[in-house]
């Protein structure tokens, strides 16, 4: 499976895009919409514990199109997020919402294969800024291209564009912080950013530093083979450590709120 993602400025646009995907024959279990859950009444209507929901509840509580399951969960660093469909439950679980069982045992292992855990932080950033995300699992490249075209027609921003906007928002502060290393940020930015993003991988970001040290070291060794003679270990490590601090600050902000 290949994941195709579009980021939308409004919930209504995202809901329309999801409806268009479903209208072309995409099964409900292979498409989802994630949207920030900020309306108090919605939180009261849609429980944070996994449960079966009717299309009427979903439509009435969330202002979204029909679907068999609506899930509201708390994602660390983001806050409450509403998702629809079994795929949405799988995404929330991968993001650390404790929602792996959101759809009970209906979430098949095959559904989680192909979820881009290295991109979840981009989705989270979009949600944190009030945007909505539509995801669809494609069976092959041809179907993936069809999904991308459809989402583009509906006004979606690509995940690559969203990733760049995320980094642009952080770059100035990271450059200023990097000055204390005595190195040139412009020269090291590529590997610093690689380290930063690696620390945000859903698989490792909540683990203690000593638990991820071996994996980080392995990543550096692989990069060193790809870029022989380049002094990349220091900027990658500094970026990795900053990425961990960044994620922790986001989680602290949500807890404080």
Characterize the structure shown.
The chain has 257 residues and is α+β, with helices and mostly antiparallel strands. The protein has eleven helices and six strands. Residues 39-68 and 99-111 have low confidence and may be disordered. The protein has two domains: 2-158, no CATH class; 182-256, no CATH class. 54% of the residues lie in helices and 13% in strands. Helix 6 crosses helix 8 and helix 9 (185-199) crosses helix 11 (233-256). Strands 3-4-2-5-1-6 form a six-stranded antiparallel β-sheet, sandwiched between helices. A hairpin with a 3-residue loop joins strand 3 and strand 4. The chain is globular, with a radius of gyration of 19 Å.
Give a quick summary of the entry.
The chain is an alpha+beta fold. The protein is 54% helix and 13% strand.
Secondary-structure-based class equals alpha+beta
Instruction: Give the count of helical stretches.
Output: 11
Share of helical residues: 40-55%
The end-to-end span amounts to 37 Å
What's the Cα radius of gyration? 19 Å
What number of structural domains do the residues give? 2
How much of the residues is beta strand, in percent?
5-15%
- Which blocks of ≥5 consecutive residues have pLDDT under 50? 39-68, 99-111
Largest sheet: 6 strands, antiparallel
**SSE pattern:** EHEHHEEHHHEHEHHHH
Shape: globular
User: How do the strands line up in the largest sheet?
Assistant: 3-4-2-5-1-6
How many β-strands, per DSSP?
A: 6
Mean pLDDT: 81
């Amino acid at each position: 499976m290949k994941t195709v993602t579009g980021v939308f400025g409004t919930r209504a646009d995202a809901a329309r895009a999801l409806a268009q995907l479903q209208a072309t024959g995409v099964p409900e279990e292979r498409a989802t919409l994630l949207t920030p859950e900020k309306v108090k009444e919605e939180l009261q209507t849609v429980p944070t514990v996994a449960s079966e929901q009717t299309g009427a509840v979903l439509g009435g509580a969330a202002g979204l199109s029909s679907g068999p399951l609506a899930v509201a969960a708390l994602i660390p660093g983001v806050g409450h997020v509403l998702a629809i469909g079994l795929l949405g439950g799988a995404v929330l679980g991968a993001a650390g919402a404790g929602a792996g069982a959101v759809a009970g045992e209906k979430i098949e292992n095959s559904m989680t294969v192909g979820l881009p855990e290295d991109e979840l932080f981009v989705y989270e950033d979009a949600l944190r800024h009030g945007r909505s995300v539509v995801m669809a699992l494609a069976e092959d490249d041809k179907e993936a291209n069809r999904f991308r075209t459809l989402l583009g027609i509906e006004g979606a921003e690509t995940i690559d564009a969203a990733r760049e906007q995320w980094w642009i928002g952080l770059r100035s502060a990271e450059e200023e912080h990097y000055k204390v290393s005595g190195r040139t940020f412009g020269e090291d930015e590529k590997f610093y950013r690689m380290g930063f993003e690696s620390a945000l991988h859903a698989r490792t970001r909540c683990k203690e530093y000593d638990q991820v040290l071996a994996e980080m070291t392995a990543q550096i060794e692989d990069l060193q083979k790809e870029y022989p003679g380049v002094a990349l270990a220091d900027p990658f490590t500094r970026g990795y450590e900053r990425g961990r601090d960044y994620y922790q600050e986001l989680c602290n902000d949500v807890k404080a709120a």
